[in-house]
Amino acid sequence: MFLEVESSQNFEGSLFLRFKEIEPAKPLLQVKLYERSDRGEWCDVIGWTDNEADPQCPAFAQPVEDSGAGFAYLVFGGVCGIRIKPVSVEEAWSVQSSSQWGESHLLLSDLSDLRFAE
């Protein structure tokens, strides 16, 4: 699998990475992140594209090989990465919001930190 993310308002910078897939990707709704809290914080996650009128797209998680941990869950979205906001933030998705942030992707090691779409 190749992951390419272009520079945008959502994610400054660009990257091109290659991963070895273990299983197919599944649509993802939320991730638990530990940057702002040692106990973790559930966050909504979506993909972000370069479509100015409607930049939102689904986010996915896919098991991939990871040289450091053996395997991990790659969280990815659109050509402009993923967009994240805490579940406590009830506002529309926007690159203008200070309560949200963009990432190129995430690599998470624990399946319990992922909530998939039905």
Write the layout of secondary structure elements.
Elements: E1 2-5, E2 15-18, E3 26-33, E4 41-48, E5 56-57, E6 59-66, E7 70-76, E8 82-86, E9 101-103, E10 106-108, E11 114-116
Antiparallel strand pairs: 1-2, 3-4, 3-6, 3-11, 4-5, 4-8, 6-7, 7-10, 8-9
What is the subunit arrangement here? single chain
Number of helices: 0
Order of helices and strands: EEEEEEEEEEE
Whole-number total of structural domains: 1
Task: Give the mean pLDDT.
Answer: 95
Number of strands: 11
Taken from the alpha-carbon principal axes, the silhouette is globular
Uncertain segments are none
**How much beta, percentage-wise?**
over 45%
Largest sheet: 9 strands, antiparallel
Output the radius of gyration.
14 Å
Distance N terminus to C terminus? 24 Å
Helix content, binned percent: under 10%
Q: Helices and strands: which structural class? A: mainly beta
Describe the structure.
It is a single chain. The model has no long low-confidence stretch (mean pLDDT 95). A hairpin with a 7-residue loop joins strand 3 and strand 4 (41-48). The chain is globular, with a radius of gyration of 14 Å. Helices cover 0% and strands 47% of the residues. The two termini are 24 Å apart. It has 118 residues and is mostly beta strands.
Give the tags:
mainly beta; two-stranded antiparallel ribbon; 118 residues; 47% strand
Give a brief description.
With 118 residues, the chain is mostly beta strands.
